[in-house]
Amino acid sequence: MRIAICDDDKILSENLCKKIEILMYKLSINAKIMEFNDGADLLYEIESTGIFDIIFLDIEIGKMNGIDIASELRNRYYRFTLIFVSQYDNYYRAAFEVQPFWFLDKPISDEKLELAINKVIDRVLDKEETFDFSFNKVYYKIFVDDIVYFESYKRQVIIHCVDNKIYKCYNKLSVIEKEFKEKNRNFIRINRSLLVNQIYMKIYYYDKIVLYNNEELGISISRREDVRNSYLDSVERKMLVV
Fold first, then answer.
1. Tell me: domain 2-126, CATH 3.40.50.2300, correct?
2. What confidence score (pLDDT) does residue 189 get?
3. Pick the CATH number of 130-232 from 2.60.40.10, 2.40.50.1020, 3.20.20.70, 3.40.630.30
4. What is the pTM of this model?
5. Angle 70-200-46 (CA atoms, 0-180°, nearest 5)?
């Protein structure tokens, strides 16, 4: 597992690195942790060697705003887990638009860091879960985290994935929705035809959502309260750790 810490406070960065190393050792996880004190260095490393599994990112870091760094990464990569480490009150709305998984407020307590690590490791391991199906006698296994949304169309379900990949299967949206609810997967039904992966929701409005790729999807009147409650619940869970 590759983990990046990007913070211009070198002492904080070094201490955070040591604490994460201890927690990873306790979890028996082999992790390579790299520290960056500049956003440009982080972006260069990712461009050279690929995206990290987990990125701890300060919102206020030197000349580069952490949200701008996160936005640039989200435009190019999807399957990484972002944790903001900062006093973020002034950046609340903008921060959620780049889909952070967690917030850690400075100074970081050992208890809150351990909670965040345990949650994020569960999240990373969940990325290996697949959605299995067949279509026209071809068998497919797709990572659930690569699915942006399911769309019901006639007797088929169209599976919209990252990188604009599209698959089809014979199923009912209600069956998939029930299955994901039982597994506590992060999908929400926004209208009769669409079941959306909430990790790809960039902006929430009362009557629509905007995805990471700026695609807009309408929320039906009957589903608005459920979508709103689900979104607020997601926000509340992230707020509890600060």
1. yes
2. 95
3. 2.40.50.1020
4. 0.66
5. 35
Give the distance from CA 61 to its chain's centroid.
21
Q: Which residues pair with 67 in a beta bridge?
A: none
Statement: residue 94 has pLDDT above 50: yes
Q: Beginning with the edge strand found earlier in the chain, give each strand of the sheet holding 32-36 in spatial order.
A: 32-36, 2-6, 54-57, 81-85, 102-104
Domain boundaries defined on the chain = 2-126, 130-232
Please identify which residue in the block is written with the tokens 């009769």: 192
Count CB atoms within 10 A of the CB of residue 174.
12
Q: How confident is the model at residue 32 (pLDDT cuts 50, 70, 90)?
A: very high
How many other CB atoms sit within 10 Å of the CB of residue 203?
14
Distances (CA, A) of 168 to 45, 129, 131, 191: 37, 19, 12, 19
Looking at the predicted structure, is the pLDDT value of residue 141 above 80?
yes
The whole-number average pLDDT for the span 132-160 is 91
Instruction: Please give the Cα distance from 194 to 46 (Å, whole number).
Output: 33
Q: Which two tokens stand for residue 133?
A: 């199906």
Question: What pLDDT sits at residue 231?
Answer: 77
